[in-house]
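step 4 of 6: structure.
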Amino acid sequence: MAAEYEYAVEMKGIYKSFEGVHALQDVSLAVKPGEIHALVGENGAGKSTLIKVLSGAHGADLGEVFVKGVKADINNTKAANDLGVSVIYQEFALVPHLSVAENIFIDEFGSEYVRIDWKKLRTRAKTALESIGFGDIDPRTLVRELSVAYQQVVEICKALTRNAEILVLDEPTAVLTTKEVDKLFRLIQNLKDQGAAIIYVSHRLEEIFRITDRITVLKDGRYVDTVNTSDMEPRSLVNMMIGRDLSSFFPTRDSSMQKIGDVVLKVENISAGKAVKDVSFELREGEMLGLSGLVGAGRTEAMRAILGIDKPDGGKVWLRGKEIRLKSAKDAFDRGIGFLPEDRKNQGVLLNMPIKYNITFSCIKKFIAFLGWLLRKAEDSFTADMREKVGIKTNNLKNNVSSLSGGNQQKVAISRLLASDSKILILDEPTRGVDVGAKMEIFKLVNELLYQNFAVLMISSEMVEIIGMCDRAVVFKDGKSVGEVGKFDLTEENLIRYAMGV
Amino acid sequence: MSEPTIPAPEYENAAGRWRSVVKLLFNYNAVVLLIIMFIVATIISDVFLTPGNMVNILRQQSTFMLVAIGMLLVMLTGGIDLSVSSNVTVSSIIVAYALKNAGLQNYSWGLMASVFLAIVAGFVFGSVNGFFVAKLNMPAFIVTLAMMYAGRGVAFIITDANTILLDQSVPAVTVLVGLAMGSDPLLHIPYPAIAMAVIVIIMGVVMHYTSFGRLITATGSNETAVQLAGINSKKYKFWAYALCGILCGIAGVISTARTGSATALSTSVSYDMTSIAAVVIGGASLKGGEGNVPMTVIGVFVLAIIGNIMNLVSLGVYPQLVVKAVIIILAVLLKSISSKTTD
């Protein structure tokens, strides 16, 4: 590739916000041809949003993108593909029931093929696979029969047949074995030598230091710096990713009102499926415990196994000193453990039902007389009280939950837990998709609950939240609880060290 | 960044008021449809508004109404029951078989026992659906399709493909047929219509005023969320099918009573499609979580009046089907337009 331009892709001053929350502010990224460029930052630093702007999945509010030195308008993913930008996401865009060859050339169906020339299709697929050193993949194999690593290779091959010169790999090694990672790296190296520009998004520091040439660091949606990988060492990179002012983000907690008591929930060596390997922790009364770690570290899966929503393979759970085995969410609920799922819209609330019903449906037994007859008056006054207590902003509790903002929807979901008298609350990403004001209110409410001796466990991917709110944190890595950080050691550096295994 | 302010009251200005009226009309389009059809029917036919015709409609609709309410329960959970015609037929055959072939008509308690047996049969039939759909998580469409065939088979096996003709001179049968064809002495409302009204009101109350109704709807609205909130959603799903079965059983008894006979051929009566159409016209969603008893009643009458008026003006059976299709599409179209414009 001739270099009439210095950068294969250059993004300048990108701004993007979602419903008032700034996801990207003045972010820049410049990648040279023949370079592997790492994009790093904590969860929520804005990496994915930046990638989505580049791929045309999101439009930027402000800023410019240049591809091969020419200003580009990337309004949709097709425009990005036409410019040679291809993103390989963690969830592949492959059709599992079609063959490798069909998947590679899937975008040609319907336009070029009136009659499919299967032989030619397979030969072309074979050639394409051979050119990247994976001639051993049979183009006739169904994609679902391939290993994850090979599926990834097919995805990359698909991108390359469309003349992708700028390849974005989003956490490509998350699901691969060590051997497969080696193979993938050889492929990436190979593509680099052919002049491709590769943007490599990863949490794994070892990999970043192993294969990338330069690194761009993002933090809280802002650009920090771009550095040569060879000038850095893991510690200094981590320091660039963290360190910021936490004050004023979180309500202050009056420690004189908080009494941390006995252990209410104890978990030992829980394992479940592939995602949860060995998880142990203790949760005390009146305490807020954080489960920290990177996305995909197995925290949600671990809690689901502990609560019996998914079946655990092994391990023990004690509730207030008594060993128990929970079999379903109902089981956990009956024992006073309330679970707030991370996917609010699909699992947390009933969007198309009234706010009132959402608050009371899981504790409906409180509001029934003979034969299930509903005591509507009692329900009305109870939900009105709850609205005051939790601060749900609506003028009518009969409105559907879908009419509320994300933060208020979450408050409704939390109200449901409180309504059913759960004293142990498991909050999975309680502030996801919630604006700053509502976040503050939710945390104020949590403080109130702690004063009343609730035990609260919060799964959060935002380390600031863990540090700002929790009394203690357990850090997860690759399905294991790898470390515990006490109140006074709660720093991003400590959390990230455990989470990344530095 | 801050919390969005509380939306202003809906009736703030004239435009807003107009919008909410339009929205109301869209959402309750079945009511509008019913009123329009009532007026049209009154204009084009002198017979329509006569007491005789009204009584006729009520008598005919009693079975369809019960099945439609059962279908509503199932559809609220997000399911569907394609086996209702088979269920109604099997139940109608069982009551006739018990009376005549099993000889229960010769006992003083025979009628009660036969009716009870038929309703139990309906319940068992529905429970089988419920078991496979709710407990084993199988798709409702497939399970009830299979049960539709099974029911047909059972109906033909029991009757040996013959019509069971009841002897109306036997006291038990006289009472049964008398109940179906008779009416109360005061207002001359047919007994089946009274039975229908009582059951509809009970179901309406159950769905609106009890936790059972609330949780069936919640289950259909978002089963995952309901389950994660610690509720045994399978129980509610099961009972939707089981209750639908009971209502089909009652409908079966009424159908035998009306004709004094039962035949496996009535499996081809389209209780299934008619009741689905009625529920959908009443604003229910195939995805579940939406719909209620009063609107389903409206839906049944919309279809009933179309059928009735077209009979009165002697429109053939086949054009009738086309007109029904147009009405169904129209009702659902209006609803989808309204949900698009208001969301």
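step 5 of 6: annotate
 - Chain B touches chain A at residues 1-4, 6-7, 9, 209-212, 214-215, 217-218, 221-222, 224-232, 289-290, 343 (CB under 8 Å).
 - The radius of gyration of chain B is 22 Å.
step 6 of 6: archive
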